[in-house]
Design a protein that fits this description.
The chain is α/β, with parallel strands linked by helices and about 250 residues long. A seven-stranded parallel beta sheet has the order 3-2-1-4-5-6-7, with helices on both faces.
């Protein structure tokens, strides 16, 4: 195994967009720490795929919606870095883990709102805070948002509110972490064919076609469209990109 040039920590890296990010980064020569919430077998499968690409990966359990667990998680990351890489720091943090509730504004429950807030806004805020001591000076943070902060679709009001908060947080972090030369950017996917939100984009042909018709490139996105964009943002050539919202939607609803 080659000495890693960098290590990326990706939350929600066992499937969907996070899995693609992990594999694209491995193809780029980077090692990965990925988190999963429940399905250890899925996560282990991604670890094995990374190994086949010649890089090293470790999967750790994490519920991003439970901020009480973050201190213990940070200690676990510190242990893994020492044991697996003989290092004290990692290089890149990708706050990707998420879930979706599709419900109208009038029908959204307080429990749904709180779950979205805990996972999409409170989680990235305090997880990043807990991991900052382990992030290299000169490192990078990518917060995953959504095209839904720019355009509106019925049923996503609460979700969009959380992602709007993530984008504001990105700019604040970029300002505060500048003295450590840590860049912080938002990556905002458009509609993607995954199981997110019950697989609506992937499994509903009418919805899929409607979004494709509103997208300049004529289709909805695929996970590798996003994984490739994250890999590009974490490549050496993107070191001067900071405090930006980068939408990766194929030109959806322009």
């Amino acid at each position: 195994m080659n000495t890693p040039s960098s290590i990326a920590l990706i939350t929600g890296g066992s499937r969907g967009l996070g899995k693609s990010m992990a594999l694209k980064l491995a193809e780029q020569g980077q090692d990965v720490i990925l988190t999963y919430r429940r399905n250890a077998a899925e996560a282990d499968g991604v670890v094995a795929e990374v190994a086949r690409l010649g890089r090293r990966a470790v999967a750790l359990a994490l519920d991003v919606g439970d901020s009480r667990s973050f201190r213990a998680f940070a200690a676990e990351v510190k242990r893994v870095l020492a044991e697996q890489w003989q290092r004290e720091r990692f290089d890149f943090l990708v706050n990707n883990a998420g879930l979706g509730h599709h419900a109208s504004f009038a029908e959204t429950t307080e429990a749904q709102f709180d779950e979205l807030m805990n996972v999409h806004l409170k989680g990235p805020y305090f997880l990043t805070q807990a991991l900052l001591p382990l992030l290299h000076d000169g490192g990078r943070i990518v917060n995953v948002s959504s095209g839904l902060t720019r355009f509106a679709l019925p049923g996503y009001a609460a979700y969009s509110v959380m992602k709007g908060g993530v984008e504001v947080l990105t700019r604040s972090l970029a300002k505060e972490l500048g003295p450590r030369r840590i860049t912080v950017n938002t990556l905002a996917p458009g509609a993607i064919e995954t199981d997110f939100g019950g697989g609506l984009v992937r499994d509903n042909p009418q919805f899929n076609a409607a979004i494709a018709a509103q997208t300049a490139l004529g289709r909805v996105g695929l996970p590798d469209d996003i994984g490739g964009a994250v890999a590009a943002l974490l490549s050496p050539g993107s070191a001067w990109v900071n405090a930006q919202r980068i939408e990766v939607s194929g030109g959806q609803m322009i």
